């Protein structure tokens, strides 16, 4: 299974995720589902290219698929993205610790030390969580295929 960062690093896969998000927002009655042919039309890519990227997204748990005869309907699965967001948040809000420390009357040097400790902890936690999630997925994936 590919690392989620590798999966979302590809522009085509991000475009597919954007199409799925748009379907979810614009057409709630569809439950966010969209056919492969509609994704192909929306992005102007070949069907094999879209299918290849959908497979990677599916294996990463970012999309789910419903089969109906010859047709495949995909929808966004936010779980892995929420995990990614949880990991990113400490990096995005690094000024929050300094602001809180200032309000609490903590010296600037203490606030910088606190931010560094928080970043180190968040990084370690994020790495441990990502590794654990990867290991669990590697064990569960073969079971799900049965």
Automatic annotation (TrEMBL):
Pfam families: HTH_20. PROSITE patterns: HTH_ARSR_2 (PS50987). Residues 1-96 form the HTH arsR-type domain. SMART domains: HTH_ARSR (SM00418). It comes from the Bacteria. Keywords: DNA-binding, Transcription, Transcription regulation. NCBIfam families: HTH_metalloreg. PANTHER family: TRANSCRIPTIONAL REGULATOR, ARSR FAMILY (PTHR33154), TRANSCRIPTIONAL REPRESSOR SDPR (PTHR33154:SF33). This is HTH arsR-type domain-containing protein. It comes from Agromyces salentinus. The lineage of its organism: Bacteria, Bacillati, Actinomycetota, Actinomycetes, Micrococcales.
